[in-house]
Amino acid sequence: MISYLAIFQLPFLYLTLLMVGFGIYGNQLDTWAGAVYAAWMIAFVGLSGLARRAVANGATAARVAALAVGGIVFAVAAYRPMHLGHWDERSTMQAIWISGVGVYAALFSFLGAQRVRTYAHGHRNAQAFALLFIAIAWLTAIEFAMFPLVVIALVFALFCAFPEPAAAAEAAASNDRRIPAAWLGHAALLIGVDVGVMLWDFGLVRAWAPHLSIVFACAAAGLRLTAGRPRAGRALLGLGAINFAAAVFAPGYPIHPAHTAVAGLALGAILANLMRDRYEHGSAERVTKSLNIAWLLGLAISYGLMRNIKYLEWRLALLAPLVLLVRPHATQSSERTRKTPDDDRATEGAA
Amino acid sequence: MKAHALRFGPLALLAGCLLWCFWPGGFEVLSPRLGRPAVLRPGDELVVEVTHSNPFASPPWTLSLRSKSGGMFELEIESRSSSRSHHFLVTRLPKSAQPESYTLTVRAGAHEAVLPNAVHVVERFSERVTFVQVADLPTFGDDESGDAAMDRIVDEINVIHPDFVLVTGDVAYGDAEWDRYRRLYRALLRFDAPVVITIGNHEFYGLAGYLHHYGNPTHIASIGEHRILSLNTAHGRDQLTYSQFEWAARQMEEHAGHPMIVQMHHPMFESRRTEGLREEFIALCGEYGIPLVLAGHWHADRVFGADGRDEADLNASGTKFVVTTAAGAPLYEKHWRSKSHHGYRVVRMNGNRVVSFTYDFDEDGARDPEASHPLGKLRWEERDRETTIHNDFNEDLPGACVRVRDANTENTLLHPNVGTIQFVRPGDDGGVIYGIRVDLPAGSKTVVRLEKR
Question: Do the interacting molecules here have an ipTM over 0.90?
Answer without folding.
Answer: no
